[in-house]
Amino acid sequence: MYEMISLPYEIDDLEPYIDSKTVSIHYNKHYKGYMDKLNYLLNKNNYNFNDSKELLVDNISMFDMNDRGEILYNLGGVLNHELYFKTMGNSNHQPKGEILRLINRDYGNYNNFKREFIKISNNLKGSGYTFLTMDKDNKLFIMNTSNQDNPLYYGYKPIMALDLWEHSYYLKYYNNRSDYINNFFNIIDFNNVNREIKKYL
Protein backbone atom coordinates (compact mmCIF):
# COMPACT_ATOMS: atom_id res chain seq x y z
CA MET A 1 0.00 0.00 0.00
CA TYR A 2 1.03 3.60 -0.43
CA GLU A 3 2.22 5.38 2.71
CA MET A 4 1.55 8.96 3.75
CA ILE A 5 4.51 11.32 3.46
CA SER A 6 5.83 12.96 6.61
CA LEU A 7 5.38 16.68 6.96
CA PRO A 8 8.73 18.41 6.20
CA TYR A 9 8.23 20.71 9.22
CA GLU A 10 6.70 20.70 12.68
CA ILE A 11 2.96 21.12 13.02
CA ASP A 12 3.30 24.73 14.26
CA ASP A 13 6.14 25.87 11.97
CA LEU A 14 3.79 27.66 9.56
CA GLU A 15 2.46 29.97 12.29
CA PRO A 16 1.23 32.69 12.17
CA TYR A 17 0.25 32.25 8.51
CA ILE A 18 -1.37 28.82 8.90
CA ASP A 19 -2.37 27.71 12.39
CA SER A 20 -1.28 24.38 13.82
CA LYS A 21 -4.86 23.15 14.24
CA THR A 22 -5.52 23.60 10.53
CA VAL A 23 -2.26 21.84 9.61
CA SER A 24 -3.11 18.94 11.93
CA ILE A 25 -6.67 18.48 10.65
CA HIS A 26 -5.57 18.94 7.05
CA TYR A 27 -2.83 16.32 7.31
CA ASN A 28 -4.40 13.77 9.68
CA LYS A 29 -8.00 13.92 8.42
CA HIS A 30 -8.26 15.23 4.85
CA TYR A 31 -5.01 13.94 3.34
CA LYS A 32 -5.26 10.64 5.27
CA GLY A 33 -8.84 10.21 4.07
CA TYR A 34 -7.81 10.41 0.44
CA MET A 35 -4.90 8.03 1.01
CA ASP A 36 -7.09 5.48 2.80
CA LYS A 37 -9.72 5.57 0.04
CA LEU A 38 -7.09 5.31 -2.71
CA ASN A 39 -5.48 2.27 -1.07
CA TYR A 40 -8.88 0.67 -0.62
CA LEU A 41 -9.74 1.10 -4.30
CA LEU A 42 -6.35 -0.16 -5.47
CA ASN A 43 -6.55 -3.22 -3.21
CA LYS A 44 -10.05 -3.87 -4.53
CA ASN A 45 -8.52 -3.97 -8.03
CA ASN A 46 -5.66 -6.26 -6.94
CA TYR A 47 -3.06 -3.60 -7.69
CA ASN A 48 0.53 -4.57 -6.82
CA PHE A 49 1.74 -1.06 -5.80
CA ASN A 50 4.98 -1.49 -7.77
CA ASP A 51 4.78 1.87 -9.54
CA SER A 52 4.84 5.41 -8.26
CA LYS A 53 1.52 7.15 -7.69
CA GLU A 54 2.29 9.45 -10.63
CA LEU A 55 2.40 6.47 -13.00
CA LEU A 56 -1.16 5.54 -12.07
CA VAL A 57 -2.27 8.53 -14.13
CA ASP A 58 -0.87 6.99 -17.31
CA ASN A 59 -2.01 3.48 -16.42
CA ILE A 60 -5.57 4.20 -15.32
CA SER A 61 -6.91 1.91 -18.08
CA MET A 62 -5.71 -1.15 -16.11
CA PHE A 63 -8.48 -0.63 -13.55
CA ASP A 64 -12.13 -1.54 -13.65
CA MET A 65 -14.08 1.07 -15.60
CA ASN A 66 -16.48 1.53 -12.68
CA ASP A 67 -13.62 2.50 -10.34
CA ARG A 68 -11.51 4.73 -12.58
CA GLY A 69 -13.25 7.99 -11.71
CA GLU A 70 -12.99 7.35 -7.97
CA ILE A 71 -9.35 6.27 -8.30
CA LEU A 72 -8.44 9.44 -10.17
CA TYR A 73 -10.34 11.61 -7.70
CA ASN A 74 -8.64 10.12 -4.65
CA LEU A 75 -5.28 9.89 -6.40
CA GLY A 76 -5.56 13.61 -7.10
CA GLY A 77 -6.43 14.19 -3.45
CA VAL A 78 -3.24 12.40 -2.44
CA LEU A 79 -0.91 13.95 -5.03
CA ASN A 80 -2.29 17.45 -4.56
CA HIS A 81 -2.01 17.37 -0.78
CA GLU A 82 1.50 15.94 -0.88
CA LEU A 83 2.73 18.69 -3.22
CA TYR A 84 0.94 21.37 -1.18
CA PHE A 85 2.55 20.19 2.07
CA LYS A 86 5.96 19.94 0.40
CA THR A 87 5.64 23.42 -1.14
CA MET A 88 5.70 25.05 2.30
CA GLY A 89 8.30 25.37 5.04
CA ASN A 90 9.81 27.71 7.61
CA SER A 91 12.82 28.85 5.52
CA ASN A 92 14.04 29.54 1.96
CA HIS A 93 11.20 31.93 1.16
CA GLN A 94 12.98 33.73 -1.69
CA PRO A 95 13.42 31.91 -4.99
CA LYS A 96 16.93 30.94 -6.01
CA GLY A 97 18.63 28.47 -8.30
CA GLU A 98 16.57 26.83 -11.03
CA ILE A 99 13.19 28.21 -9.96
CA LEU A 100 14.54 31.77 -9.99
CA ARG A 101 16.03 31.23 -13.45
CA LEU A 102 12.72 29.93 -14.78
CA ILE A 103 10.71 32.72 -13.15
CA ASN A 104 12.97 35.39 -14.61
CA ARG A 105 12.86 33.75 -18.02
CA ASP A 106 9.08 33.31 -18.18
CA TYR A 107 7.77 36.21 -16.04
CA GLY A 108 10.55 38.79 -16.13
CA ASN A 109 11.02 38.89 -12.35
CA TYR A 110 9.68 37.46 -9.11
CA ASN A 111 7.26 40.32 -8.43
CA ASN A 112 5.59 39.80 -11.82
CA PHE A 113 5.28 36.09 -11.12
CA LYS A 114 3.86 36.67 -7.65
CA ARG A 115 1.22 39.11 -8.95
CA GLU A 116 0.17 36.68 -11.67
CA PHE A 117 -0.05 33.72 -9.27
CA ILE A 118 -2.16 35.73 -6.82
CA LYS A 119 -4.45 36.97 -9.60
CA ILE A 120 -5.05 33.47 -10.95
CA SER A 121 -5.60 32.07 -7.45
CA ASN A 122 -8.22 34.69 -6.71
CA ASN A 123 -10.01 33.76 -9.94
CA LEU A 124 -10.65 30.15 -8.87
CA LYS A 125 -14.35 29.44 -8.46
CA GLY A 126 -15.32 26.92 -5.81
CA SER A 127 -12.92 24.32 -4.44
CA GLY A 128 -9.61 23.44 -6.05
CA TYR A 129 -5.95 24.36 -6.32
CA THR A 130 -3.60 26.80 -7.98
CA PHE A 131 -0.51 25.08 -9.36
CA LEU A 132 2.76 26.26 -10.75
CA THR A 133 3.55 23.76 -13.49
CA MET A 134 5.87 23.19 -16.41
CA ASP A 135 4.51 22.41 -19.86
CA LYS A 136 5.99 19.92 -22.33
CA ASP A 137 8.74 22.45 -23.18
CA ASN A 138 9.45 23.11 -19.46
CA LYS A 139 7.97 26.59 -19.67
CA LEU A 140 6.30 27.72 -16.43
CA PHE A 141 2.51 27.84 -16.47
CA ILE A 142 0.16 28.80 -13.61
CA MET A 143 -3.13 26.93 -13.68
CA ASN A 144 -6.21 26.33 -11.56
CA THR A 145 -7.82 22.92 -11.22
CA SER A 146 -11.21 22.09 -9.76
CA ASN A 147 -11.85 19.72 -6.88
CA GLN A 148 -9.00 17.15 -6.85
CA ASP A 149 -7.89 17.29 -10.49
CA ASN A 150 -4.11 17.22 -10.86
CA PRO A 151 -2.14 18.94 -13.67
CA LEU A 152 -0.70 15.54 -14.69
CA TYR A 153 -4.20 14.70 -15.95
CA TYR A 154 -3.80 17.48 -18.53
CA GLY A 155 -0.18 16.93 -19.55
CA TYR A 156 1.39 19.50 -17.20
CA LYS A 157 4.10 18.83 -14.60
CA PRO A 158 3.21 20.29 -11.16
CA ILE A 159 6.05 21.78 -9.09
CA MET A 160 4.19 23.96 -6.55
CA ALA A 161 0.65 23.86 -5.17
CA LEU A 162 -1.72 26.10 -3.21
CA ASP A 163 -4.75 24.33 -1.72
CA LEU A 164 -7.85 26.51 -2.02
CA TRP A 165 -10.41 24.21 -0.46
CA GLU A 166 -12.01 25.91 2.54
CA HIS A 167 -10.57 23.33 4.96
CA SER A 168 -7.07 24.65 4.18
CA TYR A 169 -7.71 28.14 5.56
CA TYR A 170 -11.18 28.64 7.06
CA LEU A 171 -10.34 28.19 10.77
CA LYS A 172 -7.96 31.15 10.60
CA TYR A 173 -9.11 33.26 7.67
CA TYR A 174 -12.85 32.53 7.54
CA ASN A 175 -14.04 33.94 4.20
CA ASN A 176 -10.92 36.07 3.64
CA ARG A 177 -9.39 33.70 1.12
CA SER A 178 -7.39 36.49 -0.52
CA ASP A 179 -5.44 37.05 2.74
CA TYR A 180 -4.58 33.36 2.85
CA ILE A 181 -3.40 33.53 -0.77
CA ASN A 182 -1.21 36.57 -0.11
CA ASN A 183 0.29 35.04 3.05
CA PHE A 184 1.13 31.82 1.20
CA PHE A 185 4.19 33.60 -0.19
CA ASN A 186 5.56 33.96 3.36
CA ILE A 187 5.77 30.17 3.77
CA ILE A 188 6.82 28.82 0.37
CA ASP A 189 10.06 26.85 0.64
CA PHE A 190 11.73 27.35 -2.73
CA ASN A 191 14.35 24.70 -1.98
CA ASN A 192 11.51 22.20 -1.99
CA VAL A 193 10.16 23.66 -5.23
CA ASN A 194 13.59 23.17 -6.80
CA ARG A 195 13.52 19.54 -5.72
CA GLU A 196 10.21 19.08 -7.52
CA ILE A 197 11.65 20.67 -10.67
CA LYS A 198 14.50 18.15 -10.69
CA LYS A 199 12.00 15.32 -11.02
CA TYR A 200 11.13 16.52 -14.51
CA LEU A 201 14.45 17.84 -15.89
Number of domains: 2
CATH H level, superfamily name of the largest domain: Iron/manganese superoxide dismutase, C-terminal domain
Instruction: Give the N-to-C terminal Cα separation.
Output: 28 Å
The largest pleated sheet is described as: 3 strands, antiparallel
**Quick one: CATH class of the largest domain?**
Alpha Beta
Low-confidence stretches: none
Rounded mean pLDDT is 97
Indicate the proportion of strand residues. 5-15%
Overall strand count: 3
Which CATH architecture of the largest domain would you pick? 3-Layer(bab) Sandwich
Shape: globular
**Helix tally?**
8
Helix content: 40-55%
Walk across the major sheet and give the strand order: 2-1-3
Name the helix and strand elements from N-terminus to C-terminus, one letter apiece. Answer: HHHHHEEEHHH
**Overall radius of gyration:** 17 Å
Keywords:
201 residues, mainly alpha, Helix Hairpins, minor pseudopilin epsh fold, 2 domains, three-stranded antiparallel sheet, 8 helices
What does this structure look like?
By secondary structure, the protein is mainly alpha-helical. It folds into 2 domains: 20-87, Helix Hairpins (Orthogonal Bundle), CATH 1.10.287.990; 97-198, 3-Layer(bab) Sandwich (minor pseudopilin epsh fold), CATH 3.55.40.20. It is 49% helix and 10% strand. The protein has 8 helices and 3 strands, in the order αααααβββααα. The chain has a 3-stranded antiparallel sheet. Strand 1 and strand 2 form a beta hairpin. Helix 1 runs antiparallel to helix 3 (65-87). The longest helix has 25 residues, at 20-44. The radius of gyration is 17 Å and the shape is globular. The two termini are 28 Å apart.
